[in-house]
Write a structure and sequence with these properties.
The chain has one domain: Arc Repressor Mutant, subunit A (Orthogonal Bundle), CATH 1.10.10. 41% of the residues lie in helices and 23% in strands. The strands form three sheets. Strands 3-4-5-6 form a four-stranded antiparallel beta sheet, covered by helices on one side. Helix 2 packs parallel to helix 6, helix 4 packs across helix 5 and helix 4 packs across helix 6.
């Protein structure tokens, strides 16, 4: 609940949840609430510092200052803004970073582990379900505003970014 309230006020702030709850469902709930990372007790201080530094570094690097366009989607990686059909998309920071990671390599199949490493700085974000939860939220935000489908699943392998006009959608005008 606290995480959701913080995220509502500031989508750009980094949130690292530190908790004794280590069940997969708890981790998924934490990421769904907007956490950028999830650390379970007991943990080493070096690990915590490394995770925080990895999150901070991703905020500074990784294609900052680029505009990525495909279909009716526009991503501004400097300002962390996303628009579909000229309408702003309501994405959390990690959702934006995940979408940008996919969009920066159009047509390329990206595994969950590869995406987790690029977005979170390590492959162990709790489970592959964490990536799936974020992808589901991104797809829902895009579906609300866009005539295109962008994120395509290769079952058991990962995801591919490709702008395809949604079935039944008219040509963009």
């Amino acid at each position: 609940e606290v995480c959701e309230r913080i995220r509502e006020r500031d989508t750009g702030v980094m949130i690292v949840m530190i908790t004794a709850k280590d069940a997969e469902e708890d981790k998924v709930r934490g990421f769904e609430a907007g956490a950028d990372d999830y650390v379970t007790k007991p943990f080493g201080m070096k690990e915590l510092v490394a995770r925080i530094n990895a999150n901070l570094k991703r905020g500074e690097t990784g294609g900052r200052g680029k505009i990525i366009e495909a279909g009716d989607l526009q991503l501004d990686t400097k300002n962390f803004t996303a628009r579909a059909d000229n309408e702003p998309l309501d994405l959390r920071l990690k959702e934006f970073e995940l979408l940008a990671a996919l969009a920066s390599t159009p047509g390329e199949l990206r595994s969950r582990e590869e995406l987790a490493k690029e977005v979170w700085g390590h492959a162990g974000v709790g489970s592959s379900r964490t990536i799936d939860v974020h992808i589901r939220r991104i797809r829902a935000a895009l579906e609300e505003k866009s005539s295109y489908e962008y994120i395509h699943t290769a079952r058991g392998l990962g995801y591919r970014f490709e702008a395809r006009l949604r079935a039944g959608a008219g040509q963009p005008g």
